[in-house]
Queue: 2 jobs
Job 1
Amino acid sequence: MRIVPEISGMQIVLLGQFNPAIFTPAWFTHNGLLRDGLEESAQVQVIHPQIADFTADWLHLQVTNQQFVAETQQAPYARLCELVVRTFSKCVHHTPLTAFGINRNVHFLVSDPEARNRLEKTLVPPEPWSAFREGLGLDSGHGGMSTVQVSHRRPEGRREGGQISVTVQPSALVGEGRTGVFVGVNDHFLADPPEGSARQLMSVLGAEFGPSRKRSDEFIDHVMSLTESEG
Amino acid sequence: MAFRLESTAGAPNGPGTSAGSIVRENPGELIHKEGLRAMWASPGDPSPTADTSSLGYHELQRSTWMGSQGRDVPQECLVDILPPSVPQVPTPTLHPLQEWEGCVTEIRSDEFVADLLDLTAGDAVEAEEAVISKDELSPEDQARLAIGSFFWWVVGYEASLGSARKHVSLIVFPDLPPMTQADLDRGRDWADWLYKRWGLE
């Protein structure tokens, strides 16, 4: 990436049917999925039959009855994949899974507000909105791009419903509303057959994680390039 | 069980980004309207199977996209676990400039040798070798050092919001459970399968 992000992370999201109450820090350490002792320093938000939510060192985990989300902002990202794959191919491999997503999110700063304006005008040219310039505040600086999402709805080699989506927004976390950009990539895979074995889906996740991450970084770098002036 | 709907659509940075707009009830109580099913679903984002080529989504299906920046909370099903989850930036970011996967091939008194697979370049085979000082490892990881063990090596920038960026090098050995008989059996089956497939019988 040509700009080092201020915030950078990855998520793996699984859809299926889960029992959140089992996903405690102690369960992960007991099964050798997280390092011994982490359960003592983990920040547990809630462990409940309908939701589990905790942070342990590099990992933030949130599980509901339908969704399992593991995320980190600390490389190496491969350990996130390793954790999820081992959890669902070794420990709870009977879990019915229907889909997974590999999400890459970054917030980065550009040099000045003009650079972000350049990006916004490239992605959302103001001309088609010229009749509404005043109504949308495009001239006053109070209006402009909020979200741009571009999706590939039929990625090759993926079951129908698989999707790659890139989302660009002004960052809510960095740049004080003027110089920050958020880019998120969602790489979505469906189980084939639906509700197939967790092991099978995890083997796909293991194989796809690296290429997905590389592809996402290329998308993000491209968005970064759009903030550069031609001169 | 009480609940109160409070729109986050007008939040400065979009739906769900304002922690202050989250509904709270008695500490620890689950506030529940439609059930947790739609808890993190983001109705504003296209569903993966939605037919957006037509004029609407004819088949809604849950997405693995977690919303934009922070968790988007659906307005029609505002459910919260109290207090609001972890901070939006819970840990420092370690952004990798270069990542390798390494396999230990030799251990010396103060250093070890490893074959490296360049993950950043997307290499498929180990093409580099490195000699690494044991001082790079945490005491815990020094105990894990063994011929054949693998690790990840990251060189990158560590940053927290509002603080200086640090250039760091980090070696991490994965948290692997002990090998079981089932693991060994699976490995043996796989080797047998390869042996037959290559016609080596």
Note: The first strand of chain A starts at residue 7 and ends at 16.
Job 2
Amino acid sequence: MNENTDQQRKTTIGEKIIAAAKSGKLKMRPRWHFILRAVLWLAGAVIAVLAALYFASLFLFINRETGIWLAPVFGWRGVLVFLASAPWLIILSVLVFALALEILVRRYGFTYRLPLLYSALAVLLFVFAGAALLVRTPLHENLSRCPRGDRLLEPAHFVPEGPPCGTGVYRDLGPRRFHDFYYGTVKNIAGADFIIITRQREDLIVRINSRTRLPFGAQFEIGDELAVIGDRKSDQIDAFGIVEINR
Amino acid sequence: MNDATDETIAHRVQQGEIDVFSLLMERYEKKIIRYGKKFLSCSDDIKDIAQEIFAKAFVNIRSFDCKRKFSPWLYRIAHNEFVNALKKKKSEKIAFVDFDVFFPHPAAKESADGDVDRADLRRWLDRGLDKLPAKYREPLVLYYFEEMNYREIADIMRLPVSTVGIRLQRGKTLMKKHLESKKYE
């Protein structure tokens, strides 16, 4: 009896599908449908890769240009300055696009067969390795040149060419104010103190005292790029720490 | 034609030979229904779900790469349909995030159960499979009843291979505990 029912059911399912297929109610999707879907998926992955690479390299570029990543060498205060000043929106953008990339590649066997931790680390490694290469190209340098209105290694007496132009993150890079963190080029040295000129064409007097931390020494010269942590009063900074930005 | 491989038949269906699709249905219908019954722990609507699975397989057959094995491809469709059916049932919760997939499980290598062991285990599993959570039930069904290997199960469930191993291990341990507690009742 059961066998008969099974046989009946088998016939019914099989027959229904074939009948529906023959009548046109059930249509095979054409191959181009799947090709198009794969292409769209791939395009999404490429966009996610490019966006993640761009934002990650921008993050490295900002760190390199401003020296903010050096802030933690000044101890807890430096760590707090770093946390308060780090470009979190850019870091968040990197993470969002890296996550999108992870989701997009997770449909392929070479990723889903691995633990999520491995594939996520591989994606981050890929993004930051790519970003480290990208930041060596003049991409961000060229894009940021116009908004900043100057060049990083211009002589200190350079006269600004009017208000910043350009858009987005590079516009922010110029007038950006880090919390208790200043960077600029040494313009003049007067005894223990010296004057730096910031990218906003502002002259700041940096005062060194007995408590000032100089983890990499104090052999500064005119034209050196410096990152300074300290309390600012008017145009004077009471330096808590100074470090030269290695480029 | 009956001797032809699944992949050859699938290729012919892709070329437009609709009738030969019935051969694939004949080969897999019982298996899919068994998989569904054991995974869903019920026989309600299995026939309808199986019909839906074969309909989807037919509609999407041109996405199948004939250089690969047909069965994991079909079981992947079945897995999706059964998971949807489980979600609709709402009697069993399916976790959105499963930490099993995050970390490697180096100890969970594919075990080499002999044929006799497998037959014994199948009988043993039949006694309490429905008491296990779905995430442990499914790999056990695929491994011991559908005779898939770890990699094929990983492809069907889209899981890391090591997670398949750890779920099989945990599933068997849970099963043992359940059967032991039943013995003392």
Note: Confidence is low (pLDDT under 50) at residues 147-166 of chain A.
